[in-house]
Amino acid sequence: MTGNDILYLVIPCYNEEAVLPETAKQLLAKMNSMFERNIISPESKILFVNDGSKDRTWELIEELHKSNPIYSGIKLSRNKGHQNALLAGLMIAKERADMTISLDADLQDDVDVIDRMVERYYAGNDIVYGVRSARKTDTFFKKFTAQGFYKIMQAMGVDIVYNHADYRLMSKRALEGLAEFKEVNLFLRGIVPLIGFSSDTVSYERHERFAGESKYPLKKMLSFATDGITSFSIKPIRLITACGFLIFLVSIAMLIYSLVVHFTGNTVHGWTSMIVSIWAIGGLQLLAIGIVGEYIGKIYLETKERPKYIIEKILDKKEEGTGRAL
Scanning 3, 101, 248, 275, which has its CA 20 to 30 A from the CA of 193? Predict the structure, then answer.
């Protein structure tokens, strides 16, 4: 297999100074191997996206860029979150690459899978998903919640690839399709399958994090899952409607029961059923208000049309020092 197509590796980084030198080393070795086999163009790059890191991540990216022009960098003006940082890198890569592969900086994504992704690309696929074959490195809680998340998303009607995170290859025209999606609330795992085009999957085993701390604690994972569900499905609101209709039917039945009891003279009732009913209906109402509020909040953010990210600096010979907002 030979090819002249330009490959960009896009790696979002947030406080990754502990792992970045090793990540850069392993990715460079992989790229050099592919250069030697004429699989990719010599113009291919490794693009790091600094998502407002508070440590020396950006300084390390600058040092890498000076040491070898294969390393490029993007500095966002402030922390905008993993999905926005990833999108920033993809949109920059779109302008100069034939294909891009996004992966995390923590080396949990197996870099050896890159060859197989590129092979599937040359076979005619515009999108190649990296799918975990097992979750041996996960705790029981992480495995249970992750699998539950994918099942809930699928039950909500969201077209999502099971056990796929953000390790994927996308062709230039797939990225051009991605650029057509204008929503501010980004959930790329749900957006990318909507693009269409031919796709394939490659399986791999996810490694332990090489160094540093996870950027997705439980609180962020729950927020990410909520964003994913509310950005791609209105089924939660329909469930509220169904529950409301069911409660209405129950209330009619209780009204009939109360009238029968009243006219038969047996009007002494316990307080247990009343208290339970009040708490149950009150809790359901608060839950319903919260879910509806989540959707309203998303509409509020979308109507503002604020930029998803602002680029402060680009380390690349073609566009050194420029800034832009998208």
Answer: 3
In a domain, 165, yes or no: yes
Smallest CA-to-CA distance from 115 within 40, 14, 211, 13 is with 40
Residues 79 and 102 in one domain: yes
- Say yes or no to pLDDT of 294 above 50: yes
Q: Residue 230 falls within a domain, yes or no?
A: no
Q: CA-CA distance, 13 to 81, in Å (whole number)?
A: 10
Q: Please check whether residue 63 is in contact with residue 285, taking contact to mean a CB–CB distance below 8 angstroms.
A: no
Can you read off the two tokens belonging to residue 173? 């025209």
The two tokens of residue 273 are 């059923």
Distances (CA, A) of 285 to 148, 250, 282: 25, 15, 5
Tokens representing 168?
């994927």
State the SS3 of 47-111. Answer: EEEECCCCCCHHHHHHHHHHHCCCEEEEEECCCCCHHHHHHHHHHHHHCCCCEEEECCCCCCCCC
Nearest to 178 by CA among 117, 93, 106, 256: 93
Q: Which residues in 103-230 belong to E strands, given as ranges? A: 127-132, 164-171, 199-204
**Are residue 84 and residue 187 in the same domain, yes or no?**
yes
- Look up residue 62 and give its two tokens: 């600058």
- Domain extent, residue 197, equals 7-217+308-325
pLDDT tens track for 187-236: 888 888 888 899 999 988 876 655 555 555 556 666 666 666 666 666 77
Model confidence, pTM: 0.72
